[in-house]
Backbone:
C-alpha cells in the first residue's frame, strides 16, 4: 500500500485532483486511493463504466470509436480519460479498459490506459497498453495498481506535451 500512499502524496504535493474512469478495474483504482487517509484532497471522482452504453452516456465515448478500434483499445481509453475530465472538477484523469479473461477477440490480461491533463484550458492525453498475467482477480488488481503508480511519470509526460504545444 506504500506505493499508493506515495501517489496520493505526489498528487497532493502537485496540487492535482484525480478522476478515474474504470472499466476492467471496475472501481479498484478509486478504492485503492480511498484506503489512504487524506485521499479526499487528491481524489475528485471515480467513474465505473463497464458497458459500452455507460462509456457513451457518462463519458461521451463515441460508439464509432468503440466499433472502429474495439472496446479494449487505447483510443477508447483516451476518450474515457477526456470524458472523465469534462465530467469532473479534476485536473488529471486515468482511464482503464481491458480484458481480464481470455475471449475470442482479446487475450486476457491486455489493459489499455490513458492519462489526461487539463491546464490553462488545454488538454493533453497519453496512452499505453500493458499485458498482465494471472487469473481474473489478479489481473484486475495488477491493472489498478499500475494505473495509479504510473501517475507521476505520466504527469511528467503530459506536462512535456503541453510545453511542446500539444493538446487541444
Residues:
Amino acid at each position: 500500500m506504500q506505493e499508493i500512499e506515495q501517489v496520493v502524496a505526489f498528487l497532493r504535493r502537485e496540487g492535482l485532483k484525480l478522476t478515474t474512469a474504470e472499466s476492467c478495474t471496475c472501481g479498484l483504482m478509486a478504492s485503492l486511493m480511498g484506503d489512504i487517509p487524506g485521499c479526499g484532497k487528491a481524489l475528485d471522482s471515480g467513474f465505473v463504466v463497464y458497458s459500452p452504453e455507460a462509456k457513451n452516456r457518462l463519458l461521451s465515448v463515441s460508439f464509432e470509436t468503440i466499433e472502429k478500434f474495439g472496446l479494449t483499445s487505447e483510443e477508447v481509453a483516451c476518450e474515457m480519460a477526456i470524458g472523465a475530465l469534462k465530467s469532473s472538477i479534476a485536473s488529471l484523469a486515468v482511464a482503464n479498459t481491458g480484458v481480464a479473461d481470455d475471449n475470442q477477440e482479446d487475450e486476457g490480461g491486455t489493459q489499455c490506459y490513458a492519462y489526461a491533463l487539463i491546464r490553462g484550458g488545454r488538454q493533453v492525453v497519453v496512452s499505453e497498453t500493458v499485458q498482465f498475467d494471472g487469473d481474473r482477480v489478479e489481473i484486475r488488481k495488477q491493472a489498478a495498481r499500475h494505473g495509479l503508480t504510473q501517475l507521476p511519470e505520466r504527469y511528467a509526460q503530459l506536462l512535456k506535451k503541453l510545453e511542446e504545444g500539444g493538446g487541444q
